[in-house]
Design brief:
The chain is mainly beta. The chain is globular.
Length: 214
């Protein structure tokens, strides 16, 4: 084989190999977004939709193209963050236990690979935890309170065993809870992602910590 052929073959092999992310986090990890670029810890599926603004992550017009964190989550975990919306539509959105790379290729009809948490969705009329399909019949939801414009909410998302619990501001009372007999998890479903449709939303002070297994 000629030297040129060897180089070409090497390029093909490298291009065909998916970059492997590290094993699931075994210690707390945090990001305060106090920088200018997203950095290597994230996998954007739309680079234009996610930017750093005044020490926070800004999402707008992503149309279900998540920004995936390239850190695998353990099965039992606590994810905390601050989140707010500068749009009257509210619509603050994240995904958890997704595959770390999927997005909506068509701009509509997106089915996620994990759980979807939306606060103030559907023109600020309801909040949900969905398994994959946010428009499905088995979502856990509540109406109100609507997202207040500019209010910085503190979210705490906890998965312990088969229960996913979401707290908003009040850590003594769950905002929404979803119990699963067959929960989503595995090497291909271990990622956290920020998501967005059209609203102008912000995220800050992301903190992830493993919990002892059930």
């Amino acid at each position: 084989m000629t030297r040129f052929a060897i180089i070409v073959a090497s390029v093909i092999v490298v291009a065909g190999c998916k970059v492997q992310d590290p094993p699931a986090l075994e210690a707390p990890w945090a990001d305060n977004f106090d920088r200018k670029e997203l950095g290597q810890d994230y996998r954007p599926t739309d680079r234009d939709a996610y930017t750093m603004v005044d020490g926070a992550l800004h999402a707008k017009g992503a149309r279900n193209h998540p920004l995936w964190l390239r850190k695998k989550l353990p099965h039992d975990v606590v994810v905390e963050l601050d989140a707010w919306s500068e749009s009257k539509a509210g619509d603050i959105k994240v995904e958890i236990f997704g595959d770390g790379e999927s997005f909506d290729p068509n701009g509509g009809g997106y089915t996620a690979t994990g759980y979807v948490l939306i606060m103030g969705g559907w023109n600020n009329s309801k909040s949900i935890i969905a398994r994959e399909n946010e428009h499905g019949d088995d979502v856990v939801e509540r109406t109100g309170p609507p997202v207040q414009l500019g209010h910085h909410y503190h979210w705490k998302i906890v998965r312990k065993g088969q229960t996913l619990t979401w707290f908003v501001d009040d850590m003594s009372q769950p905002f929404l809870t979803r119990h699963e007999e067959h929960e989503i998890y595995g090497d291909d479903n271990a990622y956290f992602g920020f998501n967005n449709w059209e609203s102008s939303t912000f995220f800050d002070n992301l903190h992830i910590a493993p919990l002892p297994p059930s």
